[in-house]
């Protein structure tokens, strides 16, 4: 059973899931870093992205790349709109205020999708060139698997360059250090936060497209659980820390896939429970995560 | 005499519940029972979310613990042999009265809250939100996989319909009374102090961690009672009965009613039970092109929550309670002056001799 090719297969699987968790976790961590907001609607951005891409693929018969880009753009815009309407008016309010509105937004998206598109899961039929299987080195994997990993890494590199090199990226990091001081430095904080939300939502949309590409269906609740798990990934890596979110995403992907692959089958049903037990353990042992700085209580 | 005043509303509520139980049809009785259960849920969630300032999303988990415990303990032995044949004999042979099962379930929920609370409450409040949501997922997954005890996804059905209106409203009054006493005790004031300013509270000698943990445990205890009542009202439970939807709706009740007001939670619970129930009729009635608008009632709940957060963040009642509102309107019993004010009066009297 534990043949090298089986193990390699699971590694590919873990890299896939991990890449997606990493993309989602980055979005959560970027927003959390600036606003201290746990955005419960983040996972639902994945869902919206997947639906938009599905519509572009089937109704508009676009090529897959265009569908992905459209989904990212639309959802980024949606992220900006939601920030403007539901989060900006509450800036400076107690921390849980935005958390509550994000819950409401999440419910709005889920039920809005249920109402307009029905709760019926929709099959996603990918173009044939994405589903065809490649055999190399005694392994067999779908083109989609490679694309997921490559695209996720490309997006992460792009984000890292953006955050490290551009003025806006530096402003974003400054905001997550201290919003008020950044404002005093003459930075338009509202713009920075809007950009952070756009990036966060756009990455979630990409993750949503990849997720449905991998699993083949989308329904109004597709993104909710991965969104929560991405939070676990962000906490494992140290929330607020972008490389931490990437690391946490891959660690969680490996932990989850290996749990199912190498534990006895009667235990594998407990996969989701295992993820959150992991969260409790991390919170207990190392609350600031692997790469995170100890959070200062700003009174 | 004055001590007896709180007994009047209790007698009235129980009298009405008894009357409704004999006069109304099943549909209205069920809605009334659901209202009582939701009041229990909202008032108990308010302990953490409103008073101690830790935002918990784990209420459905504790409900599930109460529901499954009570279901397993009260199911008649001969039905258990059919429905849950793989239970260990010591559980398979018991058949406890409803009240005992409810108490055992709430003890179990409190224990789980205690064990989970220790790692989770070491962090700042809003980590609690995700961690408790995670707890909900864990409990759901266990209910889904622990076949001998829970029958997995099929759930347990054919539960004895113990939840009469008298039981529901009886437990509701117990919940309100206990939590009212907690909130108006020194422990309650400690919770609010922690909520307002943790550092200042710590400096005044309030044991921060213990206070937050105790609030969390108390909330879980009552959530479990509500879960047991729910199980024996619907008479069938599955893991998906205790999903995020329930938690979300209870949070909406607390937020809309006013976090930090027991009266607000009661109002929120009544409102957010009746409104979706009414709207649910529209979902099928307003069908566009033959397609029912499922989800509409939840959308309205979410929009109301959003509206309240944006335009009246303190909720309908803010932090006021019914006696204060009545007193402000000039009706009814003036509230008992708080200990601080009473002490102030005494010193004032002492200073003005004669």
Shape of chain B: globular
Number of strands of chain B: 2
Shape of chain A: globular
Mean model confidence by pLDDT of chain B: 85
Provide the gyration radius of chain B in Å: 22 Å
Low-confidence stretches of chain A: none
Q: How is the largest sheet of chain B built, in terms of strand order?
A: 1-2
Return the average pLDDT of chain A rounded to an integer: 88
Counting helices, strands and paired strands, the structural category of chain B is mainly alpha
For the sheet with most strands of chain A, the description reads: 2 strands, antiparallel
Helix count from the secondary structure assignment of chain A: 13
User: Which residues of chain B sit in consecutive blocks of at least 5 with pLDDT less than 50?
Assistant: 337-354
Helix content of chain A: over 70%
If you had to describe this structure to a student in words, what would you say it looks like?
The complex is a heterodimer of chains A (299) and B (354). By secondary structure, chain A is mostly helical. Chain A has a domain at 26-227. In chain A, 74% of the residues lie in helices and 4% in strands. Chain A has 13 helices and 4 strands. Chain A has a two-stranded antiparallel ribbon with strand order 1-4. The longest helix of chain A is centred in the first third of the chain and has 32 residues, at 4-35. The radius of gyration of chain A is 19 Å and the shape is globular. The N and C termini of chain A lie far apart (55 Å). Chain B has 354 residues and is mostly helical. Chain B has a domain at 9-241. Chain B is built from 17 helices and 2 strands. Chain B has helices spanning 7-23, 26-52, 59-74, 77-83, 89-92, 98-120, 127-145, 147-150, 165-183, 186-196, 198-203, 208-234, 244-257, 262-285, 296-311, 322-328, 339-351; strands at 156-157, 236-237. The radius of gyration of chain B is 22 Å and the shape is globular. Chain B starts with 6 loop residues before the first helix and ends with a helix. Mean pLDDT of chain B is 85; it is low at 337-354. At the A-B interface, helix 4, helix 10 and helix 13 of A face helix 6, helix 7, helix 13 and helix 15 of B.
